[in-house]
Each structure stands twice: as structure tokens, then as C-alpha cells.
Write a structure and sequence with these properties.
Blueprint lengths: L13 E5 L4 H11 L3 E6 L14 E3 L5 E5 H4 L5 E5 L5 H12 L3 E4 L5 H4 L4 H7 L4 E6 L14 H7 L24 H24 L4 E5 H7 L3 H9 L16 E5 L4 E5 L3 H11 L2 H5 L6 H6 L1 H12 L4 H10 L4 E2 L4 H6 L1 H5 L3 E3 L9 E3 L23 H7 L4 H9 L5
Parallel strand pairs: 1-2, 1-6, 2-5, 6-7, 7-8
Antiparallel strand pairs: 3-4, 9-10, 10-11, 12-13
Helix pairs in contact: 1-7, 7-8
Length: about 400
């Protein structure tokens, strides 16, 4: 782990994390990477669901599986874990005591669940008016779907993402397709981070916290970006385009003589350069193809001609020529190739961390590069309840009191 270099941007901010799985933990890991002290509250015995979402699991020094799933490890570094039974009144009292010492609370319980334990936003903000409470659910705190459980896969379908992901319906392999990673969860985690930082700025100015209502479905719709705007401007729902782009041509995967590449022409000047490299300068002069709008309208004519030209050379030949001319392009890497890429390595996008069960822990690093307050990697993803005694001691509990709570299984 890196040693502290300077105060971090969120040093002094304390976050009580009652979330689990991905959207909430992704949010709180980002806050933790930026220096916040994140206290991860987990249920005794099992902890965060993702601890068991394997294989793969972290390997120990002998190469055997540990108890820690790679899924869990990817979203929970820089946190401290305390195991508390919130169904127990004494556990609820501990949560309230922790909340009085925190600036932020993040939770992803079903709507109304925390109120059953007396841990809802209204109750906690009554004892700590400056507390920022961020609630993350599938469908939000209001609306006819508020009581539904929200899972990323279902949200991708309901929110329209699967209608624009995958091969065209009229081609082999066409049909609904989810994205390869839980993007609704991840985007919601990031939007939640932004909202929390805004609420903290308001709290610092006024002394008052607030409640943030984050929904996966809302985020899913927001992240459709230009596709959502396309629909709202035209009234026509866009369909699946496979590896092609709805609004730009040529902007898709093409087959070379020995593999595939991505050609991502973003403007007419880049298209003219590509045409020179392809030996077809006439394309750039053809009124059907000269402007992007023309190319989009006539993609069914142009794209097959480009495909035939690209198939005559190797991927290396094309990438070398295109990169030299500054025409956007790229290889299609698997993850092993991506992490081995010299540029990715130069950007230090992996980090090794010390872990109680293994000397082999390597994680994807934060992409946030701050010049004055850089991300620091202080704690490996914690074991379940690893910091229970430490955090209870910080609350002022004595060793006998902590032991008594453990004996009663209020904490673990």
C-alpha cells in the first residue's frame, strides 16, 4: 500500500456505508479512494452478498482459494468493516451512535425497510441534522414501482438499454443483449458520488444535510445520452446497431485480413484522411459520402465498400497507417491484452495491496488522477468484521462491553 503523501480531498469526511453488492459499494469506494473514512456495516455471518459471488476467489500464497470473491474485492478497498445485527435493538443503537459521528450515510435497502429498524433518514437526521443520506434503489422512493426489487439486468431491459445493444434484428445474432458489465449499477454509484459531494458542499455552507434519492432506472435513462435525445427529438425509438453507430459513419468494427479493428471516424476531415489511406480519395468527393449526414443516410452503400477495402490488408498495416494520420482507430483487446498494454501500464491502472489472507491481491486502480490530493490505497478490501473491535472502541465502548455484544451476537 502507498504511504500517505499529502492530505486527501475528502480527509475528515466519514461515511457510514449500509449498502451492499455494487451500486452503493462503488459509490463508497470512490469516496474512500478520495480520502473519506468509510465504515462498511455488514450482517454477521455472511456480510456483503458479493463476498460469496465466486469463483473466482482471491488466492492465498499457496494458490488455494480464500473466502474473498474477486467481485467483492473489486468494490470495497479503503474501507473498514464492522459486523452488526441491525435487527437487534442493541445493534440499532450502535448504528445510531455511529451516525452521530458521520457526515454521510449510504444505503440500498428496499423502500421503507430501514424505518422498521428506526434507522430511516428522518430518524437519523433528527439526531444529526448535518447528515447526508443517500438512498439507492432500483426504482426510487416514489412512483408505482417503488416497492420492486431493482437488479441491474432487469433495469437494462426496462430502461431501454437492451433495445439499443446487440446486433441488428435483421442480421444473424440479432436480438436483445445486455452490456457485459453492470453499467446501471456502476453509473448509479458514480452519480451518487457526485450527488453526495454536492450535498456536502451545501452542508458545509448551511450546516444542513439532505436526503438523496437515487434510482437505477433514472440513471439508466440518463446514461442513454444521445440515444435518449434522438428519441425525444424525433419520436422514433432507435434500434440495435451492433458495432455500428447511430449517428456517425464509418464508426464500427471492420474485418481485416487477419483480425478486426475499430474505425471511429468522427468528422469529415478524418474521413478524407481515411479515404487517402484506403486508396479511395473519390469517396470523400462523392456527394453521397462527403459529409457525415450523407454517410449516415447512405451507410448501406458506403459501409460494404469500406469493409471490402479493409479486408485487403492486415490489422497491423491498417492501425499503423491510421494512427500515423491521426484517424481514430483501435485494436479489440481481451482483458489480458488490455492490462498488458504499455500505455495502460504507464498509467498505473493496477495496484497491488497487502491483504490478510494473501500476498497476491491486485486490483484495478482508480482512474482519478489528482495533482495535489492523489488517490491513496490505504486499506485492502476488509475481511468481514475486521474492524469491529476497533470501531466500537472509537465509539467509547470498553473491552468488556465489546465482548458482551459479541457474546450476544449483536456484533461479530
Amino acid at each position: 500500500m502507498t504511504s500517505p503523501l499529502s492530505p486527501q480531498a475528502l480527509a475528515g469526511v466519514r461515511v457510514l456505508d449500509l449498502s451492499r453488492v455494487l451500486a452503493g459499494p462503488w459509490c463508497t469506494q470512490t469516496l474512500a479512494d478520495l480520502g473519506a473514512d468509510v465504515i462498511k456495516v455488514e450482517r454477521p455471518g455472511g456480510g456483503d452478498d458479493t463476498r460469496s459471488w465466486g469463483p473466482p476467489y482471491l488466492k492465498d500464497s499457496q494458490g488455494a482459494d480464500t473466502s474473498e470473491a474477486a467481485y467483492y474485492l473489486g468494490a470495497n478497498r479503503n474501507k473498514r468493516s464492522i459486523a452488526i445485527d441491525i435487527a437487534n435493538p442493541e445493534g440499532q443503537a450502535l448504528i445510531k451512535r455511529l451516525a452521530t459521528q458521520c457526515d454521510v450515510l449510504v444505503e440500498n435497502f428496499k423502500v421503507g425497510d430501514l424505518a422498521r429498524y428506526g434507522l430511516d433518514a428522518e430518524t437519523l437526521r433528527a439526531i444529526n441534522p448535518g447528515l447526508v443520506v443517500c438512498s439507492i434503489t432500483g426504482f426510487g422512493q416514489t412512483g408505482p414501482y417503488q416497492d420492486r426489487a431493482g437488479y441491474d439486468y432487469a433495469i437494462q431491459g426496462i430502461g431501454g438499454l437492451m433495445s439499443v445493444t446487440g446486433e441488428r434484428d435483421d442480421l444473424p445474432g440479432g436480438g436483445p443483449q445486455k452490456v457485459g458489465v453492470a453499467v446501471a449499477d456502476l453509473f448509479t454509484g458514480l452519480y451518487s458520488t457526485v450527488a453526495i459531494l454536492a450535498a456536502l458542499r451545501h452542508r458545509d455552507a448551511t450546516g444542513q444535510g439532505q436526503v438523496i434519492d437515487m434510482a437505477l432506472l433514472d440513471t439508466q435513462l440518463a446514461m442513454l445520452a444521445n440515444l435518449g435525445s434522438n428519441y425525444l427529438c424525433t419520436g422514433k425509438a432507435p434500434g440495435r446497431m451492433g458495432n455500428a453507430h447511430q449517428n456517425i459513419v464509418p464508426y464500427q468494427v471492420f474485418e481485416c485480413s487477419d483480425g478486426h479493428l475499430i474505425l471511429a471516424v468522427g468528422n469529415d476531415g478524418q474521413f478524407a484522411k481515411f479515404c487517402e489511406i484506403a486508396g479511395r480519395p473519390d469517396w470523400a468527393q462523392d456527394p453521397r459520402f462527403a459529409r457525415n449526414a450523407d454517410r449516415v443516410r447512405n451507410r448501406e452503400v458506403l459501409v460494404p465498400e469500406i469493409a471490402a477495402a479493409i479486408k485487403t490488408r492486415t490489422r497491423a498495416e491498417w492501425l499503423g497507417a491510421l494512427e500515423a494520420a491521426k484517424v481514430p482507430c483501435g485494436a479489440i483487446n481481451n482483458l489480458a491484452e488490455a492490462f498488458a498494454d504499455p500505455h495502460v501500464q504507464a498509467r498505473e491502472m493496477t495496484v497491488a495491496m497487502e491483504h490478510p489472507l494473501s500476498d497476491r491481491l491486485k486490483l484495478v486502480a482508480s482512474p482519478i488522477k489528482l495533482s495535489a490530493t492523489p488517490v491513496q490505497y490505504r486499506h485492502a478490501p476488509p475481511l468481514l468484521g475486521q474492524h469491529t473491535a476497533e470501531l466500537l472502541a472509537e465509539l467509547g465502548l470498553s473491552e468488556p462491553e465489546i465482548h458482551a455484544l459479541s457474546e450476544k451476537r449483536v456484533v461479530a
